[in-house]
Amino acid sequence: MRAVVVHGPGDVRIDERPDPVPGPGEVLMAMEWGGVCGSDVSYFRHGASGTARLVHPLVLGHEVAGRIAALGPGVTGPAEGQPVTVHPAEPVGDEPLPERIAGRTNLHARVRYFGSAAFDPHTDGGFSEYRVVRAHQIRPLPDGVTTEHGALAEPLAVALHAVRRAGALRGRTVLVNGAGPIGSLVVAAARHLGAGTIIAADLAAPQLAVARAMGADETRDLSRGEPLPDDVETVFEASGAPGALGAVLLATARGGTLVQVGNLPGTPAPATLGSLVTREITWIGSYRFVDEIDDALRAMRDGLDVSPVITHRFAIEDAARALAVAADPDHAAGGKVLLRLGPGGSR
């Protein structure tokens, strides 16, 4: 089978690997679509993502969907040919979480994640024609949700988790700073959960157009000097740019809530944070998700349309070009880049 493998910074190849065979408790997926994430881009550009560094070649990809191709011994329930996506996280070990964070499985100290070099050996991702997956990580796609859209269940789950970290949004005014794919999906999640007025801000007009298509009522083009709004009770920071934090904190209402969903650097970076104290802002981190991938699939079943986020599609053999486009901050439309991993991908 073919697989998209990163060997080092700037070195992504389409490697031939043996077709995998599912073991007990596993299923074999025939992959159809994969979404390029910022971590995939980081491994492509730098050979690392956060503190995780490549030691061996790594198959990329954790936003994936396809169909069941075969069942391993002892697996019942899913049927061959069934369209599915994957919950890409698997906690390591059986040590229970402290009571104060019971159930928040995204906060386990050690988690294997599709397409991650956090452990040695690395955890290969799903940018391949086939992938063996533990049966409990499979999530069937609801009727009406294509495998193309199913590949976006994972980033939509990230957005839903962030929105739920903020508490009830019904009727509230919401600001989303950063209108890349995650920011635009935060807009969609906030709209789905009943937010009132949603304002999206970014430096790129094409990304703001995607945010508006996903449900933003207003947009602010920061490249044109348009200011952030004042005194917004609930704010989502989705750019991950430390330089943006000062203005975003000033836009947050006194006593308001700021949810940090954009990944901040793991190294020292200057940021203006004084308003965090003087405005008594509650600043909340949001990391991946727990089981919101199930909520994401239900939301898509119920009409949440993720298609405006998808702006580019590439064949698996063009993976290096797809990663280069996703890595370019000026690429046209600024949305989600998808890879067609197999011939059966439905749109």
TrEMBL record:
Gene3D superfamilies: Medium-chain alcohol dehydrogenases, catalytic domain, NAD(P)-binding Rossmann-like Domain
Listed CDD domains: idonate-5-DH (cd08232)
InterPro entries named in the record: ADH-like_C, ADH-like_N, ADH_Zn_CS, ER, GroES-like_sf, NAD(P)-bd_dom_sf
Top-rank taxon, per record: Bacteria
Chain ranges of the Enoyl reductase (ER) domain: 8-339
Keyword vocabulary terms for this entry: Metal-binding, Oxidoreductase, Zinc
Record's keyword annotation contains Acyltransferase: no
Cofactor(s) the record lists: Zn(2+)
Tagged with keyword Methyltransferase: no
Single annotated GO MF: zinc ion binding
Family: Belongs to the zinc-containing alcohol dehydrogenase family.
Name of the protein this chain belongs to: L-idonate 5-dehydrogenase
